[in-house]
């Protein structure tokens, strides 16, 4: 028995252990209630099992039920927008109820404002933010492109696909007729001028757009057109983190311009000669020999049919790489990065290459002193800045052969001296154009907390830029083959040295329910630009290009200039808040500009803004539907210098004249001086409503604004008897009114499953000229009209083509069937510029909108960025420059008018007209469009896999840029891309890109 007893105990123990183990593995149902701090049920909270792909959400009563397979070891994760993530171990329990805490970080979220930061709930101005993630959603070459369609009231229009070009940015429309309308850029607190291409997008942490007077008046004369604050990445406390981002994109032409092939061109030239009676259809071969030269006729017989666009355009690419190291301790933080970017265009001679480096250091000294610096450096190379090789390619005849029997380029493929072979530009050394730029932009600061709440800060921002431009055109370059002459060269150099010094004193104090913030500023900004240039002709050895100008036979141009401007500023701002409910901001800035004459140098720019946090009122504190509701209003005045340095002093120009028997040089005034010039001033009113619902699932803003700009800096026309045709004066008034709506929504939020988030924005702006001064209602030369937008198209209106059946009526107008029919506005059977030109439209859109849609499922994320403009008009030079219907050059493949095909869109070819009469009326089109700017699919490797590889994050992306354009100009009129500032020009063709990328963090 004693021997059996130990065995029985062992068997019983094994059975008990098995039973315990089996019970632990048996799935159980866990349920409970989820409440907030006020014991209110929370609806839609996500409850997931940590490390698993299973989960559920709380119901209308805040209750949940979830089956757990391993209750002994499972951990539940509770997540909800606006609340801190909560983890709770199951530990065998079947009932788990929790109270979730509000995420104070969200409630205390700060945004960058002028000269500081504010809690989002305390902001009284109109400010839109674009995060680094949003910037990375689309492949962009410069920061401005990242703003397109991302913020209401911000219009970003790409005016070229040429590598290195920058888009036009307008905040709440255009208000100035002659002065600048570009916004002020401020990088790490320092005003920034010049090209933003110098800043790699990978270094940007966020971009804030200041739009109303309350937000921009703090920048005075610099903020008249809005302000864009660019904040670069800084180091964070923690161990060093190394990150890499890289991408490579294949760039292709978006679409080929629809030019005539050989058969269509041959028939068009025949029709052009039929119109004037020079083509005999009864003897076509003899007629062809008369209207085609020997080379052309021989090529026709050979069946030559060349697509010159395909010869000129090849596949481009875009590559972008960046390495970054950041980290720090409690006292020292650092961020260091290197970047490389290259954009090779689809035209061989056009590319842009940039090398970037950035350094940011923040150092705390004791408890009250901080110092820091950020340095952005860039060195860039741009080839083919002014090259436009596609122009000659489009004009070249399809019946022209590019090469002879030996494979050599034919200089004049058609025998026409005005049509050189465009491929000659691609021969090494025939055309060299290079712009080298070096820039070092620095922001240094030192901050001392004198007493609690009182701080003094010194900002110093040196900015050094250097430009070196060279252009060489050999004697076989197409431009010289058309114009004739020896090889030419141009060499330009420029240096820009600027600095900003700012002294800031801030005081912030909270007394019970009263919060007070005071900011004082004294600053000075100065910029000096030194430019020199030389043009020569007759380079004896073409391999010297533009590097030995002294050997040239003739100096055709020599220039140099030096200009300096300074702005001295004082600013004061007071922020007051009561009980987080009522807000008040008062700002006054005084700017003194060296650009104006004595007595006119100073401008004063005040603003006032109020805010009401309705959500913090007692009746709304207990409810859970609305979580943000704030009403804002602002009114203020901002200014614009708008003139070049020394503009008030007039100018002289040198002229030769005869003195006795000698030729001498003298000087005469070229610009009248006007010492009375003063600031353009914009008075702005803004009303805004910020809102949020369902614990942050829906948030947004609605804004209305009215801006009135007076004392417009514009030229006043003078009688020619004065010796001058104009003088710059303060004349006229303009107005901008608009509405902006921005909404962000989390439609579906399931961290372990499918999620859908979206951002949508809409804006409309109406600009109007209210007066032009001196009682004038129109300035026809500049197309300015009282009561109309600041930019309009003023021209004859095409209403069709004169048909053969209307020959008698056409004769009364002095035209023939087949020619363009214009609207006779005053019905006097006479088309003249004074009475029959009219306002056709404006490039100003009736409205524009943008959206970003993000879908995620487990490790996958799909983002779609789209943008639309509606109700604008564009002018296309393609339909005036490449629609001559003359027969000397190739033509757009249009359906033109003939007796057999009575088209009402395009006129009849005519060999006696180099261009159709009133051809410019063919250029105007509806500019509305909808674009999908980018589609990106990303996959993030699972955390477990990444950790096993010794990494923190690994993400792969594939995206396509500009995959879809829907527009009347494209679908109806065979255009390529309707997006342009004012005129669809003949330049680098529009492109699309397929891009692959990787992001890694160690």
From TrEMBL:
The keyword Cell division does not apply. Keywords: Cell outer membrane, Membrane, Signal, Transmembrane, Transmembrane beta strand, Transport. Coiled coil: none annotated. Residues 120-227 form the TonB-dependent receptor plug domain. Residues 1-23 form the signal peptide. The keyword 4Fe-4S does not apply. Its main location: membrane. PROSITE patterns: TONB_DEPENDENT_REC_3 (PS52016). GO terms for cellular component: cell outer membrane. InterPro entries: Beta-barrel_TonB_sf, CarboxyPept-like_regulatory, Plug_dom, Plug_dom_sf, TonB-dep_OMP_SusC/RagA, TonB-dep_OMP_SusC/RagA_CS, TonB-dep_rcpt-like. It is a multi-pass membrane protein. It is found in: Cell outer membrane. Pfam families: CarbopepD_reg_2, Plug. It comes from the Bacteria. NCBIfam families: OMP_RagA_SusC, SusC_RagA_signa. Belongs to the TonB-dependent receptor family. This is TonB-linked outer membrane protein, SusC/RagA family.
């Amino acid at each position: 028995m004693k021997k059996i007893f130990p065995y029985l105990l062992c068997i019983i123990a094994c059975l008990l252990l098995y039973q315990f183990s089996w019970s632990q593995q048996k799935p159980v149902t866990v349920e409970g209630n989820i409440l907030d701090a006020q014991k209110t049920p929370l609806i839609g909270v996500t409850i997931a099992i940590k490390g698993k792909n299973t989960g559920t959400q709380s119901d209308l009563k805040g209750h949940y039920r979830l089956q757990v397979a391993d209750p002994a070891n499972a951990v539940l994760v509770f997540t909800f927008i606006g609340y801190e993530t909560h983890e709770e171990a199951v530990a065998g329990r079947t009932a788990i109820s929790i109270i979730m805490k509000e995420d104070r970080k969200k409630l205390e979220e700060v945004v960058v404002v002028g000269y500081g930061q504010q809690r989002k709930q305390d902001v009284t101005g109109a400010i839109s933010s674009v995060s680094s993630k949003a910037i990375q959603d689309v492949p962009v070459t410069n920061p401005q492109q990242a703003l397109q369609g991302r913020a209401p009231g911000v219009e970003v229009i790409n005016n070229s696909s040429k590598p290195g070009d920058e888009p036009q940015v307008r905040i709440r429309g255009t208000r100035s007729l002659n002065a600048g309308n570009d916004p002020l850029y401020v990088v790490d607190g320092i005003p920034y001028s010049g090209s933003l291409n110098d800043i790699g997008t990978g270094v940007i942490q966020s971009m804030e757009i200041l739009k109303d007077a309350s937000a921009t008046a703090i920048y005075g004369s610099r903020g008249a057109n809005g302000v864009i604050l660019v904040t670069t990445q800084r180091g964070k406390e923690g161990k060093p983190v190394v990150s890499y981002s890289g991408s490579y994109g294949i760039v292709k032409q978006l679409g080929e311009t629809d030019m005539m092939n050989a058969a269509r061109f041959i028939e068009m030239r025949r029709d052009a000669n039929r119109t004037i009676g020079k083509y005999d259809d009864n003897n076509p071969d003899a007629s062809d020999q008369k209207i085609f030269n020997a080379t052309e006729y021989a090529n026709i017989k050979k069946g030559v049919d060349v697509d010159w666009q395909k010869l000129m355009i090849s596949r481009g690419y875009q590559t972008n790489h960046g390495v970054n190291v950041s980290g720090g301790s409690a006292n020292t933080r650092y961020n260091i990065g290197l970047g490389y970017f290259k954009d090779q265009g689809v035209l061989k001679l056009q590319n842009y290459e940039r090398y970037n480096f950035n350094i940011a250091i923040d150092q705390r000294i004791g408890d009250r002193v901080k110092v820091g610096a950020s340095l952005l450096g860039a060195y860039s190379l741009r080839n083919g800045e002014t090259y436009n090789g596609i122009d000659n390619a489009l004009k070249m005849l399809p019946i022209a052969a590019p090469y002879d029997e030996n494979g050599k380029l034919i200089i004049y493929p058609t025998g026409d001296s005005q049509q050189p072979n465009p491929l000659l530009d691609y021969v090494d050394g025939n055309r060299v154009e290079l712009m080298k730029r070096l820039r070092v932009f620095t922001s240094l600061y030192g901050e001392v907390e004198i007493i609690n709440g009182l701080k003094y800060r010194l900002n110093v921002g040196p900015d050094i830029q250097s430009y070196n431009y060279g252009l060489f055109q050999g004697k076989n370059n197409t431009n010289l083959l058309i114009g004739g002459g020896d090889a030419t060269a141009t060499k330009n150099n420029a240096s820009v040295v600027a600095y900003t010094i700012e002294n800031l004193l801030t005081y912030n104090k909270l007394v019970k329910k009263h919060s007070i913030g005071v900011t004082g500023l004294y600053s000075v900004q100065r910029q000096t630009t030194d430019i020199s240039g030389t043009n020569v002709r007759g380079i004896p050895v073409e391999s010297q290009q533009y590097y030995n100008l002294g050997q040239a036979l003739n100096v055709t141009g020599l220039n140099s200039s030096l200009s300096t401007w300074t702005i001295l500023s004082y600013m004061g701002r007071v922020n007051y808040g009561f009980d987080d409910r009522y807000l008040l901001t008062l700002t006054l800035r005084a700017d003194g500009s060296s650009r104006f004459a004595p007595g006119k140098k100073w401008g004063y720019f005040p603003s006032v803004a109020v805010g009401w946090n309705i959500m913090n009122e007692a009746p709304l504190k207990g409810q859970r539907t609305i979580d943000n509701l704030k009403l804002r209003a602002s009114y203020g005045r901002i200014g614009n210098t708008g003139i070049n340095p020394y503009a008030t002093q007039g100018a002289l120009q040198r002229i030769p004249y005869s003195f006795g028997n000698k030729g001498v040089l003298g000087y005469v005034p070229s610009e009248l001086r006007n010492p009375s010039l003063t600031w353009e001033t914009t008075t702005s009113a803004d009303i805004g409503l910020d809102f949020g619902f369902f614990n942050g699932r829906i948030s947004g803003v609605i804004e209305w604004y009215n801006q009135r700009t007076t004392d417009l800096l514009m030229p006043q026309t003078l009688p020619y008897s004065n010796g001058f045709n104009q003088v710059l004066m303060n004349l006229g008034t303009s107005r901008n009114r608009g509405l902006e709506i921005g909404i962000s929504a989390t439609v579906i939020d399931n961290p372990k499953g499918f999620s859908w988030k979206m951002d949508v924005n809409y804006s409309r702006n109406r600009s109007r000229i209210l007066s032009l001064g001196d009682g004038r209602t129109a300035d026809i030369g500049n197309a300015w009209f009282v009561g109309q937008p600041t930019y309009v198209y003023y021209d004859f209106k095409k209403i069709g083509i004169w048909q053969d059946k209307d020959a008698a009526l056409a004769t009364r107008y002095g035209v023939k069937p087949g020619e363009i029919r214009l609207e006779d506005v005053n019905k006097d059977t006479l088309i003249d510029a004074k009475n029959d030109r009219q306002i056709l439209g404006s490039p100003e859109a009736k409205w524009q909108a943008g959206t970003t849609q993000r879908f995620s499922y487990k490790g996958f994320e799909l983002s779609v960025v789209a943008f639309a403009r509606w109700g604008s008009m564009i002018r296309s030079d393609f339909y005036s420059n490449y629609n001559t219907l003359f027969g000397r050059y190739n033509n757009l493949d249009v359906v033109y008018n003939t007796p057999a095909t009575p088209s009402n869109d395009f006129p009849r070819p005519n060999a006696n007209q180099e261009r159709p009469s009133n051809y410019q009326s063919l250029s105007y089109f509806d500019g509305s469009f909808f674009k999908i700017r980018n589609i990106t699919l990303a996959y993030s490797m699972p955390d477990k896999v990444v950790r096993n590889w010794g990494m923190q994050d690994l993400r792969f992306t594939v995206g396509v840029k500009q995959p879809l354009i829907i527009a009347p100009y494209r679908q109806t009129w065979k255009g390529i891309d309707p997006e342009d500032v004012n005129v669809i020009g003949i330049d680098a063709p529009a492109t699309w890109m397929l891009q692959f990328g990787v992001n890694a963090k160690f």
